[in-house]
Structures
1.
Amino acid sequence: VQLQASGGGLVQAGGSLRLSCVASGRTFSNYDMGWFRQAPGKEREFVAAISWRGGSTYYADSVKGRFTISRDNAKNTVYLQMNSLKSEDTAVYYCAAERTRYSSVRSLAPDYWGQGTLVTVSS
């Protein structure tokens, strides 16, 4: 699976951005999808995940209530709507795919990674 993320940019604190990730190469609906992020000097961390049909989602506590993950299997695309952005959300955001195990997405373990898109939140 090839993953192409886009939508990052510079936004003021309190603002919103929507990230997109288009998949190609394999049947998109066979994959659970997720977003991870890596801030400067920090480890990559989990942000959100969504199951293969979109029926199940899971979020890191730090973004719960502010971010929403969704997918459109007809467009081979997963989205991350980010609202009420904070300076601590500044990071490179990566989309990721794991062949679905038809189980919880809480422990998403990606098989494939996208190239990352930079989100910068100014305070």
2.
Amino acid sequence: QVQLVESGGGLVQAGDSLRLSCAASGGTFSTYGMGWFRQAPGKDREFVAAISRRGGGTSYADSVKGRFTISRDNAKKTVSLQMNTLKPEDTAVYYCAATVRSVIVVDTALYNYWGRGTQVTVSS
């Protein structure tokens, strides 16, 4: 079983950048596919980005493609989300998640472990 803790959220202005990190403990980190999701007030949790176990494969939501980059460091047991050119519509609680599946998945239901989230607020 893996525990996940997100950090790096905050209040920024539109056009700014922010880097989220997720630290994992317990389990064998390199055996988990990792993903970032977000949930805005009154909306369902939605997929943002995912990365394969070794980092060779990634997937992004269309809304963040070209602006966000997911990466991982298996030695440090961390996964990061670099967010550039932030927009007010990126405002949400961002969650890190881990899946035991061997392929990249975008469905929240296919992730086994979740962090508690970190708030990102983008002002216009």
